[in-house]
Amino acid sequence: MKKVILVVLTIIVAFLVYINVNAEVGEIVIPEAAIRVRVIANSNSIDDQSMKMKVKAKIEESISPMLIGVDNVEDARSVISSGIKQLEDDVEVLFLDNDYDKDFVVNFGDNYFPEKDYRGVHYDEGEYESLVVTIGEGEGDNWWCVLFPPLCLLEASESEVDDTEYQFFVAEMLNKIFS
Length: 179
Hints:
The chain is an alpha+beta fold. The chain contains five helices and six strands; from the N terminus they run H-E-H-H-E-E-E-E-E-H-H. Strand 3 (116-118) and strand 4 form a beta hairpin.
C-alpha cells in the first residue's frame, strides 16, 4: 500500500513539475520607452540572409554589451548614439572580410516596423524609436528585437536554458522503486 501511495504522489509531483517546466515563458511585452533594433537584408537570397544574421551578431557584440546596466532610456539613447560610428566601422569590415559588395545605412531614430506576431503576441506596425541597419536594397526579410531594455539578451539567455537537459528526482525515484 505504501508503494502505491508513493507512486501516486510521485506521479502527481512529476506532473506538476512537468507543467511548470513546460509552461510558456509568458508574453514579452515591449515597454513604451523601448528602443528596438532591426536589420533588413538586401534580399531573401541565402547570402543576403546570412549577412543579415552576421550584422545582427555584430550589433549584439558591439552595442548590446554597452547597454547592460543602463536603466533609463535617455542613457540608452546616449550609449547607442555614441556606438553608431563603431558599428558602422565594424559592419564595413565585416562586408570587406566576406567580399560582400552591398552598401548599408545605419539609422537611429523613428523608423517603420511592420506588424509581427511572436510567441502569441501581436505587435502593431508603426514608427518606433530604433536602430535600423538596412543592407543594400533592403528588400529581404528582416530581423528585429528590443535593444533597450535588453530583451534580446534575455531571449538569448532563455534559449540557452531551453537546451538544458533536465533530470528529475521523481524519475530517479521511480527507477529505484521498480528496479
